[in-house]
Amino acid sequence: MKAMKVFIPLVLFLLIFSCKNNDFTMDATPSTKDSVWHTFKIKNENIRVLETNNQYFLAEDIVLSKDQFNYLSYFNAEVKPKSLVTSDFIKLWPSGKIYYTFGSNVSNTLKTEINSAMSWLSSNTPLSFALKGSSNSNYVTFEASNVNQSPVGMIGGMQVIQLTSNASASTAIHEILHSFGISHEMGRNDRDNFVTINTSNIYADKMHNFNKVGVLSSIDVGLFDARSIMMYPAFTTNGTFAKDINQPIIIPNNPNVVIAPSYYPTATDLLGINMLYGNEKPYVDYTVTYNTVYEDWQSGSYDKEVLYKFSLYADAAKTIPYIHNYPVPIIIQAYKETVHNQVEDTPQSFKQSILIPAGQNSATIVGRDMIDREYGNIIFLEKLDYVAIKNSTHYNYN
Q1: Domain hosting residue 165, numbered range
Q2: Is the predicted pLDDT of residue 2 greater than 60, yes or no?
Q3: Do residues 262 and 301 share a domain?
Q4: What are the percentages of helix, strand and coil residues in the chain, rounded to 5?
Q5: pLDDT above 50 for 263
Q6: What pLDDT score does 392 carry?
Q7: Is residue 321 over pLDDT 80?
């Protein structure tokens, strides 16, 4: 739905909204006489779908098939737990490949943007594209429209990605990723740990854009990313969306976090895509190198640059480098400890993703180990360490 700015993230994934209170009141009367709201209670979350003109909308830019709508109707999490990775609700494209055609109303300008989007994804992810042939029964048709919309996942047969005539490559990537099965970042199971949805500033008939579709998944793929291309911005200029465009629609729980969707997939988005469509699980290893920048033996003060090198291998013996023609993201754990004027700050621990460049099997990230002493007391300390995460669903660690 890139009507707001939006360009949004991948990986990795999902859609949604609800602050601490998910029981907002939906307008009793839909916007048109042919429209009706459907509400599904799934794992104590209300999933709302707008039915209008025989189409079902999980969000304004996500169109559900009749089968997907029926799936929600009969979904029972206690008896039949599902994962977005393998569920009946969202189907993946075999080998991560989409066959496509262009509708007759697609201008050369729009076609250029779509081709740019597909080229970027082909170069930076395991996803690929090919023009539809006579033997390809499942494919995507790009059409020019007055909206940006896509199905979510492979529907079967022909499915349509609609783009406005002035849609950018970024918007095209966003909608294409929907067709690959990736939903909005705000729909993750864990989104409430990171952001609060300002429901009081969102019109009721727009709230389905913030369904927490993560409840349909047994896992959250990748890491939450406020910069994801699948994320909505904190503010919108769309007056039919926000009651007050000067007030946020999404508020970060951490005031130091900026909600600003990227124009292209971030490293975290790429991680989610790889976790969905990567067919291999490489082995990770890492080494640590200390470079002394400054050292005072008398006071005990020092400043060291710490280089953490993460390497991927195709075999458990770690003799065969794991290399692809696209960047491979991995998750690492960061630990940060600081002391200012002899006052120790609360230690921080957080996960982040880094990219192994295309054609290589390793990447280096810089940490720090610095202590400044005065009369034996630590007046300043900063330690930033990184380690490979042992329990990762993305790679093996031994």
Answers
A1: 35-275
A2: no
A3: no
A4: 20, 35, 45
A5: yes
A6: 66
A7: yes
Same domain, 242 and 325: no
Q: Is the predicted pLDDT of residue 320 greater than 90, yes or no?
A: yes
Q: Would you tell me how many other CB atoms lie within 10 Å of the CB of residue 157?
A: 9
pLDDT digits (tens, 9 = 90+) for 105-114: 999 999 999 9
Q: Is 300 left (phi over 0), alpha (psi -120 to 50) or beta?
A: left
> What pLDDT does 393 receive?
64
Question: In the listed set 250, 275, 300, which residue is the last one of a domain according to the structure?
Answer: 275
- Specify the CATH number for the domain of residue 103: 3.40.390.10
The H or E element containing residue 31 is none
Q: For the chain, report the end-to-end CA distance as a whole number of angstroms.
A: 42
In this structure, what are the phi and psi dihedrals at residue 246, rounded to the nearest 5 degrees? -85, -5
- Ramachandran bin of 67, using left for φ above 0, alpha for ψ from -120 to 50, beta for the remaining angles: alpha
Residues 263 and 342 in one domain: no
Q: Report how far residue 379's alpha carbon sits from residue 253's, in angstroms, rounded to the nearest whole number.
A: 30
Residue 246 counted as domain residue: yes
Q: Which long-range contacts (CB under 8 A, 24 or more apart) does 110-113 make?
A: 110/142, 110/144, 110/163, 110/165, 110/167, 111/142, 113/163, 113/167, 113/168, 113/169, 113/171, 113/172
Instruction: Inform me whether the pLDDT recorded for 118 exceeds 90.
Output: yes
Same domain (yes/no): 211, 303: no
Q: What pLDDT sits at residue 88?
A: 63
Structure token pair of residue 140: 């995507």
Are 266 and 291 in a shared domain?
Answer: no
Q: Do 248 and 145 belong together in one domain?
A: yes
CA distance 126 to 327: 9
Radius of gyration from C-alpha coordinates of the chain: 23
